[in-house]
Amino acid sequence: MVSxxxxxxxxxxVARELQVSIQxxxxxxxxxxxxxxxVRHIFKEIAISEMKHAEELAERISRxxxxxxxxxxxxxxxxxxxxxxxxxxxxxxxAIRLYKSTIQVAELEGDVTTRGLLEKILSDEETHVDIxxxxxxxxxxxxTQPNL
Length: 148
Ligand SMILES: [Fe+2]
Ligand SMILES: [Fe+2]
Fold this sequence. Notes:
Layout: H1 4-30, H2 33-63, H3 81-108, H4 112-136
Helix pairs in contact: 1-2, 1-3, 2-4, 3-4
The site of one fe (ii) ion (FE2) has 6 residues, from helix 2 and helix 4.
């Protein structure tokens, strides 16, 4: 029997997976500019990966006799490509922190299967943050640059 705390953490994961799967798909749809059009398929691919995470976490919660949430965390699509990438990088870093701490709780409770699932998802999130980070290299946001 797993704890209420572990179920709550897994549901936090579902809420943020739902958020980013919609967020990245809408970025895929809404991004503009030459660079945006060139990279929009990356948003779509990662959105699909996030939807699979939401499904896997929800299945695990259900198997543990919990009820998966249907409410996403607040979605932020953004305007410019840089704004989108910065937001997404932040969301991926938050996900990595959440899954690392959830892995520790699963470990403490001896839930090897949940730990294994979270380790696989964590590895995907590390790939995502690497992709968003590399896309941001050398980019500066014209709206946040200090006046020279
Ligand atoms: Fe994810
Ligand atoms: Fe991700």
